Amino acid sequence: MESVCHLGRTPEIVRTLPVASMEAFRGGDPDRREGVRLGGIPERDLIEDILEERGLAAGLLRGFNPDAFRGDQIHLLNLEYRFPIWYLHNGISGLPVFLERLHGAIFVDVGTATLAGIFDDPWQVGLGAELRLGAQFLLDTPANFRLGIAHGLGEFGIFQYYLIAGTGF
Predict the structure, then answer these.
(1) SS3 of residue 100 by DSSP
(2) How is the chain split into domains, by residue range?
(3) Which residue of 30, 33, 102, 164 is most buried, as measured by CB atoms within 10 A?
């Protein structure tokens, strides 16, 4: 098999510093409501996510167990620094796979789930890094792979390693 790759810059945006925030509120009968949840990346079926063209995006507090925190309201802030590593822009021989680019991201996630006010429960912090590969399958099926490591600070934090399909935010 032969693969050709081009190194160098393209006219795309080279470095970005995206910020995302999410708030969710739940009301109703206190005896019947489950509340809203906040936490890290759940286990996923990578192949199924690609075939169904779905994946994880925003709304995650990486470095914690999935659904680790519950409350009537959640508040989440995601901050990332993204940078290019390698612009591929080529297919692999005659296979129906087109690799676009490899880039990295360093992130900080800050969030809380609370039953009271926004500052009544502790805020949780997750730190980490990801390698992301953009690709196309069968000419019209986009896929973004994210290989990452995250660490939650504090007593509920964990080291989390993951490989998922998803765009981020």
Answers:
(1) strand
(2) 19-165
(3) 164
